[in-house]
Amino acid sequence: MKAWIEHFASKPYALWALSITACLEASVLPVPPDVLLIALAVARPKRSFFYAAICVAGSTAGALIGYYIGHAFFEVIGRYIVDFYGLQNRFDSVLILYKGHAWTAILLAGFTSIPFSIFTIAAGFNATIEVGTFIMATLAGRSLRFFLLAALLFVFGPAIKTYLDRYLERFSIAVGVLFILGILILQGFL
User: Are 56 and 34 in contact (CB under 8 A)?
Assistant: First the structure.
């Protein structure tokens, strides 16, 4: 799958593929757009932030689609997606998490490699999260993820690709954990 996604980097419609991949990842498929973002940015590191912006826009559009699936079409489409990927327990956990920490949960889900589509569908399910809050948290989380990746690619160029291919998921989780710890520390001091 990774090789198939990477091959789009050499196509004239690579930017459309990047946007569509980001959109699908946020709404229905657990196919991370990072693979194509990395391939494009390795070839042209100076455009890394442009590629990240495309990912953020596509992913935010996909998140709205996921939200709408959860809100209006859960029984027809949403349940099928959750069941197809065997994520009912995770879906239920997300709904519980949203009760007290919706904004933070969406922000972190947008930043980490957890299947984001489950979070977007759950947010729309019975309008669990108000759409404005959902969009702002999605923009923040997705921007953190893709622009941090773009910054790494811009600074280090092709030299960092091997490292990212091997450790991107662990890196995302580690930064997410540090972010949570930072929030907890700030809340303790406020």
Answer: no
